[in-house]
Amino acid sequence: MPARPPEITATMLLQAYGIGMFPMxxxxxxxxxxxxxxxxxxxxxxxxxxxxxxxxxxxxSGAFEVTCDQDFPAVIEGCATPTPDRTDTWINAEIxxxxxxxxxxxxxHTVECRLDGVLVGGLYGVALGGAFFGESxxxxxxxxxxxxxxxxxxxxxxxxxxxxxxxxxxxxxxxxGAREIPRDEYRxxxxxxxxxxxxxxxxxxxxxxxxxxxxxxxxxPM
Length: 222
Hints:
By secondary structure, the protein is of the alpha+beta class. 37% of the residues lie in helices and 23% in strands.
């Protein structure tokens, strides 16, 4: 009988991110993980994020109550929930276990968006030095995940992060400035970013955060 492979630990997962690899499951019901290291890697440049005027108005309106690191279980469950466009998910029980451990160790962070106290959108990802690896996002209300993304970018910029890894690119992310870079260039940027200190700001000063939204949009504070 072949030997059973050793259990993946949160430490091993963090080390994998540090060398450019990340895990996924083929489906929610598949207990196994596959490790990916794409030849072309998606990134969202923090100094080149495109914030449309309409979305800026939504962010500044305060229509959503935005928090960070308040409910990781609900966020990852939201990310794994089937939608009309995605009937299955790569988030299986093993992914939930590992990222829950990293959340407890303050290496995973969330952004939550609520309407009338109900969670309607959000995202989560891994922080390692000055690199942030965006894992997944979800939206049950118009603009909820977009607002979460804008809040993420603002916090990363304010906290000194230099790399926002999106793993892959989609048409949705490309509208915000995401693009692909070759694996070698990604590894170089990854090494530089993980060697730099950065601070995750879960609750920055509202005035500073508001000014950062304007800076991202290329506007002067009013």
